[in-house]
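Q: My labmate handed me this sequence with no annotations at all. I'd like to see what the chain might look like in three dimensions before we decide whether it's worth expressing. Could you predict it?
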Amino acid sequence: MMFESLPEMAPSIAGALVAGGVIGFEREWRGRPAGLRTHIIVSLASALLMLASMSQSDWAFHALPEENIVTDPTRMAHGILTGIGFLCAGVIFRTGFTVHGLTTAASLWITSAIGILFGAGLYGLGVAATVTTASVLIVLRVISARMPSRAYVDVEVSWRRDGQVCEAEIEATLRAIDTTVRPGIFELISEGQVLRRTWRVSSGGDTDMKILAGGLREIDDVIGYRFVPRDD
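A: Here is what I predict for the chain of 232 residues:
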């Protein structure tokens, strides 16, 4: 491939950069682990690899005598989307009941797909995919925020082991917020002196969490608590 071919590839590269930037900006704004730079690099890498696979006639290798080489760019696309799965797995983590990072992983995956579209010269489809993805991440979040809903929170509470009625008081306090509270992990820590347990609680918002925090503080044997909201 000579340098004079680069102008022909400029639209693909520019489109991939813009698409990755648009999607990455939303993730960066939300403070997610994979933000602007990561999405741009994923989109650009996908586009470049796709461009390279479509230009195999310029690769620096020679076929054996009397052999024909059949190129198949779709193999590169399959390899890219398979490989991006390892990167997506790096942004997914679990805390208690909650799995975080699924939306960011999905955004990385579709950003890679959009990069492939631009690399393959499917500019219209690439632009449509970028606009649709940005709409899903931004517009639907605004709509969701305005809809009446209840959020789920992982509540982790620690109390002294010798507190005879402490657990019952904690559960009563939780049920004042959510009657369908679900118990989870049960641990014995601090050399057997402290019990720690996790519950999943449905919350109406910040007010419920303040009420819950106040109730837990009134229980003498409680020595610590933590609220982890479920959010991608």
